[in-house]
Design a protein that fits this description.
- The chain has a single domain (25-80, 103-497), classed as Porin (Beta Barrel).
- The chain is built from four helices and 21 strands.
- The protein has helices spanning 235-239, 292-295, 408-413, 440-443, and strands at residues 25-26, 63-64, 103-114, 136-152, 155-166, 187-199, 207-215, 244-253, 258-265, 282-291, 297-307, 334-345, 350-361, 366-380, 383-394, 401-403, 420-423, 426-437, 450-462, 479-480, 486-497.
- The protein is globular, with a radius of gyration of 21 Å.
- Mean pLDDT is 85; it is low at 1-71.
Length: 498
């Protein structure tokens, strides 16, 4: 099996907007700026940004991995020179210095994904909400950041450092960066560690660089709780996009409404040497745009390309599981991933989003692709309705998988044998209805941050007659053949964010 986020063979063998929001920022409905995917902008960090970036504001719509930093023609084309963060305040009469701009943010998410019909204890096709009927601390996400701030001669500098603790960290490690420091249900994972630079080069609005570990740019939903509209993930954002890369990303501000994206990195969730997957570079290329059609249309078209297989040897465990290594052939076997995202803001309360994602893997000769649509409606200032529909095709059955131990995903990335199970080639359909409720009677008594709950109902179904749900499989035959053809489940999470 090979997935882009989870590269491996199983069967048989930019700009990032700040901290705590994820690279993703939600798309505002009709607002002039992007939003953190939560409508609670006060709980989000300042954007780690250069000129023409979008500020975190309240708005509707799901998230975009890039659009938090798409250009905004309504904002001045200047770097920040006196940002004051939420940690320090200069004495009266004293001009703020650089370090007065430090920002600290924290979010805590816990929830439960109820599935009374499962016999495996798992919700198939999910990572962060894979444990059925289990109250879970998904994440405690903390960060320190500084927005890109002028340092003279048109240059600017900022940074982001973020770390995650919780059950979600099982699926968000970066190999070589404290992976497997803890190996139980609750783990630790650094999720962002990058320096952000602005340089007045090549074009009038300059170029931004992110150097280090950053979130991936593809897909419509991100890792942090507030970087997605619902508790559960869509298939495409979980399985066929990178969640972490280490390298250099450049964002070229081509015009008031258009950015070019070009980057080079070590691959999905890997770093260098023994913590890498092979010796070949990978990278991004694409465009992002915002405020088209009288400010109503935002979007991006981004690809990520490169050899993603592991060039180590195939290893076998005592109980029969294999690793993903295929030897030196991995150095030349490409993996291609493309993503198109469009959000149209009908008003400041209603937005619709279309997201199409595609992956081709040379190693498994697999094509996986999905289309997801969203509708977000702010019924009241404290209540948002979120609708999501998705169709996803797994041509070989090896892309959508369940990683059954708490270290399966990390072991897979490290080319160690790991337990899993998969399905037959399947066309998946999923419908989700949820709400985001920010109880004012609670929030007015909270001194720091805001609280919200997000109940949802979701139906997953095989559209081609396979039965991948609610059963497990064995090492002798890791394919679920006689489960159920649908999965109806009920989930709810709660998030406090500062």
């Amino acid at each position: 099996m090979m997935t882009f986020r989870h590269p491996g063979i199983v069967a048989g063998m930019l700009l990032v907007v700040g901290v705590g929001t994820a690279p993703n920022s939600a798309l505002c409905a009709g607002d002039s700026g992007g939003a953190a995917s939560s409508p609670d902008d006060a709980s989000q960090p300042a954007a780690s940004s250069a000129p023409r970036v979008r500020k975190a504001t309240t708005g509707t719509g799901p998230v975009s991995e890039y659009l938090g930093n798409a250009p905004n023609p309504n904002e001045p084309d200047t770097l920040s020179t006196g940002h004051i963060g939420n940690l320090f305040s200069p004495p009266p009469g004293k001009a703020p210095d650089y370090w007065d701009g430090l920002e600290a943010h924290l979010s805590v998410q816990g929830g439960i994904a109820g599935n009374p019909w499962t016999r495996s204890g798992r919700n198939f096709g999910q990572f962060y909400t894979d444990r059925a009927n289990t109250l879970t601390l998904n994440q405690v996400l903390g960060s320190i950041s500084h927005p890109v701030t002028a340092i003279g001669s048109g240059y600017g500098i900022g940074f982001v450092a973020e770390i995650l603790y919780g059950s979600d960290a099982r699926f968000d490690p970066t190999i070589g960066m404290a992976d497997k420091l803890i190996t139980g249900l609750y783990q630790i994972a650094p999720t962002q560690a990058h320096i952000d630079l602005h340089a007045p080069w090549l074009v009038s609005r300059g170029i931004d660089f992110q150097i280090g570990q950053i979130y991936g740019l593809l897909g419509a939903e991100g890792t942090p709780a507030l970087a997605r509209p619902l508790y559960t993930f869509n298939y495409a954002s979980a399985y066929i996009v990178p969640f972490e890369t280490v390298g250099v990303l450049s964002t070229i501000h081509l015009s008031e409404q258009l950015d070019g994206i070009l980057g080079v990195d070590t691959g999905n969730s890997t770093t260098f040497g023994g913590a890498g997957n092979n010796s070949r570079p990978k990278g991004y290329i694409g465009l992002a745009f915002a405020h088209m059609m009288n400010g109503k249309l935002d979007g991006h078209v981004i690809g990520h390309f490169g050899p993603q297989g592991n060039n180590g040897p195939t290893r076998l465990s005592a109980d029969g599981w294999t690793s993903i290594g295929i030897g030196r052939a991995a150095n030349s076997k490409m993996l291609y991933n493309g993503d198109v995202l469009l959000t149209y803001h009908f008003s400041d309360r209603l937005a619709a989003t279309f997201n199409a994602t595609y992956m081709h893997d040379d190693i498994t000769r697999d094509d996986a692709y999905g289309v997801t649509s969203y509708l977000a409606w702010d019924i009241t200032p404290s209540l948002r309705l979120n609708l999501r529909g998705e169709i996803f095709r797994d041509n070989t059955g090896t892309t959508i998988a369940a990683y059954t131990s708490t270290t399966s995903y990390t072991d897979m990335l490290r080319n160690a044998p790991y337990p899993y199970y998969i399905a037959l080639p399947t066309t998946y359909g999923a419908l989700t209805v949820g709400v985001t409720y920010k109880p004012e009677f609670v929030n007015r008594h909270i001194e720091f941050g805001k609280f919200q709950v997000r109940p949802e109902i979701r139906l997953d179904k095989s559209l081609n007659g396979t039965q991948p749900f609610n059963r497990a499989a064995t090492v002798e035959d890791p394919v679920v053949r006689h489960g159920t053809n649908n999965m109806l489940w009920f989930s709810c999470d709660a998030v406090w964010s500062f």
